[in-house]
Amino acid sequence: MKKTGIFNSEISRVIAKLGHKDKIAIVDLGFPIPSHVERIDIVLDFGRPTFEEVLKVILKELEVEQVILAHESSKKFEQIIKENIPRVEFLKISHEELKKLTNDVVAVIRTGDVVPYSNAILVSGVIF
Q1: InterPro entries of this UniProt entry?
Q2: Annotated binding residue at 36?
Q3: pLDDT, tens digit, for every residue of 103-114?
């Protein structure tokens, strides 16, 4: 049995396969996920798990060099990301553009978060 890290086998598998500049998205409950993109649905209940809960676990195994989020996202949402990835580069685009960009991600992780615009694309970095 695995002792540490991410215990969700689908998320662990996707992160292990990511290369530099590959992208994954963490999205809220209502985000439209393209049908051709791998969907990892971890919704447990209305509001659970939150974006932040999922982000914290993913960061145990993923090096992130850039976060793409919508202009419409709240300052609190941006602060959550900054607190968890202090030196990350941000790219802000419209929510519509963010939805289009999810066509090019390796996978979308759907959370139970119900705070509007709690969606981000994480761009994989390198550890050296």
Answers
A1: D-ribose_pyranase, RbsD-like_sf, RbsD_FucU
A2: no
A3: 999 999 999 999
pLDDT tens digits for range 40-71:
999 999 999 999 999 999 999 999 999 999 99
Known binding residue 95? Answer is yes
36 is catalytic: no
Residue 27 lies in a domain: yes
- Beta strand residue intervals within the chain, DSSP E: 23-27, 38-41, 64-70, 89-93, 107-110, 120-124
Exactly one of 17, 20, 21, 60 is catalytic; which is it?
20
- Per the CB < 8 A criterion, the answer to whether 10 and 73 are in contact is no
The answer to the question of whether 28 is labelled as a binding residue is: yes
Q: Which CATH number does the domain housing residue 57 bear?
A: 3.40.1650.10
